[in-house]
Amino acid sequence: MTYNPTPVDHRARHHAVTDYVHDAVRAGRLTPGDRVHETSLARALDVSLSPVRESLFRLADQGWLEHRPRRGFYVRTFTPAETQEIYTFRALLEGFAARTVAERWSGAIPEEDVALEEEMAQLIVEGQRVPHAGGRVAVGHVNARFHDCLIRLAGSALLRRSWALLAPADWLLIPTWGDAPPDLTPAETADWVARHQRILTLLEGGDSAAAARELEEHVREAGEGNLRRRFPHITQTTETATVTPA
User: Which H or E run includes 195?
Assistant: First the structure.
């Protein structure tokens, strides 16, 4: 008997493929330039090649992968200029979000924001604990959730759509990429916690200018760190990234 998948089955298979690739990239199991083998992926997920190929083409359209005709799918490789553009854009978005949230919280935190504010506080607590269990990958997930809370709190549909454009590149901006050791040092953990606690304190205090400045500096510093790890030959300045001759 021929089995014809229902629409629900079809969507579930696509989600399985997409989630698998997302997780592999974020965790560093797939790195820029790596080939994503269709047959191996289909075998691992116990699905046919059709939903795998459809999902991989969709991921290519979204910017996660690069499709090379007659060669296959590869994890997208970002150039130094693209990497800098990503974190510069993200800094602008998060600075705007921080200013918006702090202004709204300048009197008191609105009731509808309390749950997300509490979630951010809890994520800072998790940031103290997860390095001992999951290393940089775990901290990266906590970090991404913290910043996503900030974007959601801003309450701007346009900001959310702009933020979604960065989704294929979010793994560049969390501490899971590159040749850094898999575990954070105690000093790195303490710095992560202190920096995010300072951000939350500024938001809660309603200091919109300081909150925006802190977020922009925080994102730019993290982005520049990623740029240096990925491209050791890059000379970083405040305005441009140039390639230093070998």
Answer: helix 186-204
Residue 217 has pLDDT above 90, yes or no: yes
- Kindly give, in sequence order, each residue whose CB lies less than 8 Å from that of residue 144, ignoring residues fewer than 6 positions away: 170, 174
Domain ranges of the chain: 7-75, 80-243
Residue 230 has pLDDT above 90, yes or no: no
Cβ burial, residue 246 (10 Å; 0-12/13-18/19+) = exposed
Q: What is the pLDDT of residues 121-145, one digit of tens each?
A: 999 999 888 766 667 778 888 888 9
Tokens of 12: 């579930």
**For residues 46-73, average pLDDT:** 91
The phi-psi region of residue 63 (left if phi > 0; otherwise alpha if psi is between -120 and 50; otherwise beta) is left
Q: Which CATH code for domain 80-243?
A: 1.20.120.530
What CATH class does 7-75 carry? mainly alpha
